[in-house]
Amino acid sequence: MDSQIKRPPIINAPLPLTVFAVVLVVLHGLRVFAPQSFQIEVLYHGALFPERFWGWTDGQVMTPSGVPAYPGVLAALAPFVLSALLHGDWFHVILNAVFLIAIGKPVLEILTVLKGRYGAGVIATLFVLIFISQAGGGVVYLLLNNPTGAIAVGASGGLSGLMGAYFLMRDGAAARLRSRPFLTVTAIFIIANMIFAFVGPSLLGASIAWEVHVGGYIAGAVFGRLVIWDAVRKLDI
Questions:
Q1: How far apart are CA 78 and CA 95, in angstroms?
Q2: What's the CATH code of the domain at 194?
Q3: pLDDT tens-digit profile of 147-156?
Q4: What's the CA gap between 194 and 187, in Å, rounded?
Q5: In the Enzyme Commission scheme, what number(s) does this protein have (predicted)?
Q6: Three-state SS at 235
Q7: Which residues pair with 147 in a beta bridge?
Q8: Quick check: 170 and 103 in contact, CB under 8 A?
């Protein structure tokens, strides 16, 4: 047997996804091992906090429960991105890190085909997709938790967006938001999230922010449709 034959790596994950997954885990470790006052401060500024957000939109300085509203537009919008970098516990962050690589890899491969080659543009598009989906999930969460609701953290909105984009973009130039295959898998995704929303507290010991998942999924699918449209327009296919 030829000793020069290379064995495939045990973990065949793209570097950008691996780095981002590690960053999520490291950030969680830094937070949970930091002083409690710092942990509270990070959550206070980075988590999706419905009462503070809606208090800010109403021009309040202090919300009815005594929590300060966001002091300005930057503080109010920052959690739409920063919430992706915060997680509730080790199970939460590790699950999201694994899922990021699992679903992110096929999305990255599709983007590479659409762009013609792997490069900085593909990587940038992937992360724009993730954070737009995260923001989309945050918007739906806040809309359905008005004027109050539990704080929400985690990259689940961005990861759900990867799923939405994948299920749409895998059909290539024929991808349509209203196609029967995509609507079918979307219905399954929403139903599954509704079920987990009810069984999550007893099964996982934590509530499931299904609103973030659904909002992120939809935002990712729409973004994926735009990417497909742009590729078709440029290639004239």
A1: 24
A2: 1.20.1540.10
A3: 999 999 999 9
A4: 11
A5: 3.4.21.-
A6: helix
A7: none
A8: no
